[in-house]
Amino acid sequence: MPPVAIGFGVLLIVLGVAFYFVTEMKSVTALIPAAFGLVLMVLGLLGRQERLRKHVMHAAAALALVGVIIPLARLWPGIQSGGFDNPNAALETALMGLLCAVFLGLCVRSFVVARRSRSRRALGEEGR
After folding, report:
1. CB atoms within 10 A of CB 45
2. pLDDT digits (tens, 9 = 90+) for 8-26
């Protein structure tokens, strides 16, 4: 899972930097996805250490959850009113939320698979 976190971190960094330049460097808030991506990348790098992996990947999943909730909260008023003041910002926010949602889904899947694997090993050891 750490390589996946690193990959999604890179995608978020690219998203933030790209929109920063698309908006002609007018808004520092365009770099918010890059900040999330940087933290996610660091968590992925820390997750390469076996002793830290479980805790770090849970932190990465929590960050991804925040990365889904905040964009939804920011987009909701525009969705309700049927329009956005800044379409570029809305698009970037939606893409950030989507990337974080996909990563969160992969995290949950990975946690379920790991839990089942531990349960099977425990059952196999009890049977001996």
Report:
1. 15
2. 999 999 999 999 988 877 7
Q: What is the pTM of this model?
A: 0.85
8 A C-beta contact, residue 19 and residue 92: yes
Average pLDDT, the chain: 90
- State the residue range of the domain holding 45: 2-126
DSSP string, the chain: -HHHHHHHHHHHHHHHHHHHHHTTT--GGGGHHHHHHHHHHHHHHHTTSHHHHHHHHHHHHHHHHHHHHHHHHHHHHHHHHT--S-HHHHHHHHHHHHHHHHHHHHHHHHHHHHHHHHHHHHHHHHT-
Work out the burial of residue 84: count CB atoms within 10 Å of its CB; fewer than 13 is exposed, 13-18 middle, 19 or more buried. middle
28 touches 8 (CB < 8 A): no
How many domains are contained in the chain?
1
Distances (CA, A) of 124 to 59, 83, 113, 118, 127: 30, 57, 16, 10, 5
